[in-house]
Amino acid sequence: MKVILKETVKGLGEQGALKTVKDGYATNYLFPKGLAFKATDSNIKRLDEYKRALEKRKIKEDEQIKALVEKLNTISCNIPAQAGEDDKLYGSVTSQDIADALKEQGVDVDKRKIILEEPIKQLGVYSVPIHFSQNLQAEVKIWVIKA
């Protein structure tokens, strides 16, 4: 039986994929859980329209992300932190601190997109990458200063 996946199903395929599965798997698992629907002619046409709309939405989102990347590449943030001798911080600067500093600058970035190999524990200037997708990445200059 041919089915169109409504959602990504592990081991079967991505959302919107046209797959051939056994009748029992489709009627007893995929259809009751709302994971797929039968691939009729009208549903296949609807799938094509859905894919075109999804592609347009993806292009629009990519343009917005590119604009955000350009803006982030020009931003520099100051993060005040308590420091002791030898410019060592009492705590550390985490991705959440950087996200909060960016939010104060008017840019809302999810802290999970900020790539820190390890928390920042010294005063200084750091270039922090922000990863949006495979080919879209921004770099923000972070100044960790003494509070």
Question: Tell me, what is the CATH class of the largest domain?
Answer: Alpha Beta
**CATH fold label of the largest domain:** Ribosomal Protein L9, domain 2
Radius of gyration: 23 Å
Distance between the termini: 66 Å
- Count of the domains: 2
- The portion of residues assigned to helices is 25-40%
Q: Order of SSEs, N→C?
A: EEHEHEEHEEE
Strand order of the largest sheet: 2-1-3
By CATH, the superfamily of the largest domain comes out as Ribosomal protein L9, C-terminal domain
Biggest β-sheet strands, sense, barrel: 3 strands, antiparallel
From the 3D coordinates, which CATH architecture of the largest domain would you assign? Roll
Determine the strand fraction and express it as a percent band. 25-35%
Shape: elongated
Mean pLDDT: 91
Q: What is the strand tally?
A: 8
Unreliable segments of 5+ consecutive residues: none
The structural class is alpha+beta
**What count of helical segments does DSSP give?**
3
